[in-house]
Design a protein that fits this description.
Elements: E1 2-6, E2 9-10, E3 13-14, H1 16-26, E4 32-39, H2 46-51, E5 56-61, H3 70-84, E6 88-92, H4 95-108, E7 111-116, E8 118-122, E9 125-132, E10 137-141, E11 148-152, E12 167-170, E13 202-206, H5 216-226, E14 229-232, H6 234-238, E15 259-263, H7 269-275, E16 280-285, E17 298-301, H8 304-320
Parallel strand pairs: 1-4, 1-6, 4-5, 5-12, 6-11, 7-11, 13-14, 13-15, 15-16, 16-17
Antiparallel strand pairs: 2-3, 8-9, 9-10
The protein binds flavin-adenine dinucleotide (FAD).
């Protein structure tokens, strides 16, 4: 099995999702794994790639690859797959990765399994695990031909820093005319404080039980005191109380912080699937029968408007002492 992992980067960092997929691929017993970084001035990322399990790293470094556009990346990957005889290409999900994976599948006439939560070897074959029926079951999915392409749901795998180093091989960049037609006009970064929801060790999430958008300051204050990020349910995102980028769940993000504090959240299955792998789950809800208590490690039956500010005060006091 010859596996290539697409290593996406922003700034001078490889994304956690890509590194998780790399660590997963490197853990297969008979793994022949390589990473690939595509961009401009990206050679310095080799250290990170090696540390997280890539014995080999292909580097496509070219000024024309600076903008994160999909088609030039498809050109590089398609060439690599053909030249090196790669049979499996893995991606961690993102807007860019989804575009590149789909473009590569079309270019190579290859099968793409998307939204996978795991990958296993069964009887010498690779089998993808894909959540279905509102994430209540996993279905096994496979590929009829090579190369196999897979796109993993974000948060599926934790990056494991094994501490190796990658042997770097530069790849020649040849772009198709049609791939250079699109131009990046602008890139804007969302202004936010504190860690992102994907990387935060602590998430304080708010639901409809907060009563209104103005009460999100309660969860923001607690998140700030704990050095964490704010999450939200779809109900409040749909109501326009909080941005979509913070939505946790089936149609939002999958997160696995060390601590997840759910404030005024009922615990619907679609929310649960996005946060159930958190280390410790604490729920604050005024309804003793709220489903969230069934999968919480610690439950507080009470009004969020009383419990959350008190908790924030206690955390601040503990930190100050
Ligand atoms: C296809 C599909 C995809 C979906 N995807 C997602 C998804 O990605 N993420 C997601 O979150 N949902 C998703 N949903 C919606 C999901 O089914 C629920 O409707 C949603 O999660 C409920 O959000 P909530 O817990 O904020 O609101 P509610 O279900 O209304 O729960 C509010 C909770 O707050 C409690 N409460 C009320 N007042 C207080 C108070 N003062 N103090 C303490 N507790 C209080 C109540 O007891 C209740 O338990 C999806 C649904 C579908 C059909």
């Amino acid at each position: 099995m010859s596996t290539l992992v697409f290593l996406e980067h922003h700034g001078h960092e490889l994304l956690k999702g890509s590194l998780g997929v790399l660590s997963k691929a490197a853990a297969f017993a008979d793994a022949d794994v390589a990473g690939v970084v595509i961009g401009s001035k990206v050679r310095a990322l080799a250290d990170q790639a090696g540390k997280f399990g890539a014995p080999k790293l292909y580097v496509a470094d070219d000024a024309r690859l600076e903008a994160p556009l999909p088609q030039p990346r498809v050109d590089v990957l398609a060439q690599l797959v053909r030249d090196k005889g790669i049979d499996t290409v893995l991606f961690g999900n993102s807007v860019l990765a989804a575009d590149v994976a789909a473009g590569l599948a079309a270019r190579l006439d290859a099968g793409l399994n998307w939204d996978l939560a795991d990958l296993v070897q069964q009887d010498g074959k690779l089998v993808g695990k894909r959540p279905a029926l509102q994430d209540s079951v996993y279905v096994d999915v496979g590929w009829k031909s090579e190369p196999r392409i897979a796109l993993f749901r974000s948060g599926s795998f934790d990056p494991v820093a094994a501490g190796g180093s990658a042997q770097v091989e530069d790849v020649a960049v040849a772009l198709e005319d049609f791939s250079t037609s699109a131009r990046m006009v602008d890139q804007a970064h969302e202004e936010s404080e504190g860690p992102s929801i994907e990387d935060a060790p602590v998430i304080v999430a708010g639901g409809r039980g907060l009563g209104g958008p103005e009460n999100f300051t309660l969860v923001e204050e607690l998140a700030k005191a704990l050095g964490g990020a704010v999450g939200a349910t779809r109900a409040v995102v749909d109501a326009g109380w909080y941005p979509y980028s913070t939505q946790v769940g089936q149609t939002g993000k999958t997160v696995s912080p060390k601590l997840y504090i759910a404030c005024g959240i009922s615990g619907a299955i679609q929310h649960k699937v996005g946060m159930q792998s958190s280390g410790v789950i604490v729920a604050i809800n005024k309804d003793t029968n709220a489903p969230i208590f069934e999968f919480s490690d610690l439950g507080v039956v009470g009004d969020v408007h009383e419990v959350v500010p008190r908790l924030t005060e206690l955390v601040r006091a503990r930190k100050a002492s």
